[in-house]
Design brief:
Elements: H1 2-50, H2 60-69, H3 71-87
Helix pairs in contact: 1-2, 2-3
Amino acid sequence: MGIVTIGAACLLVLLAAAMRSRTQQLLNVILRAVLGLLLIWFVNAFLDGQGIPVHVGLGAASLFACGMLGVPGALLLYGIEICAWLMG
């Protein structure tokens, strides 16, 4: 009976650790998405003030790219937009 109790306790600890890890991952994705969208918003405002017609939209694709990649995702979106602007 003692081994079953110890095994159940270990299983509960592992389950709690797995749930904590998933929660941290979800919070990390949400934080990256919010920071990336804020970066896009500020960079769009800066570029508009400079008269540069390069703007990245604040939509689902931007949210996904920033959530998965963070700031590099936002920079990637600007790289794509700059290439499209230069190619006409």
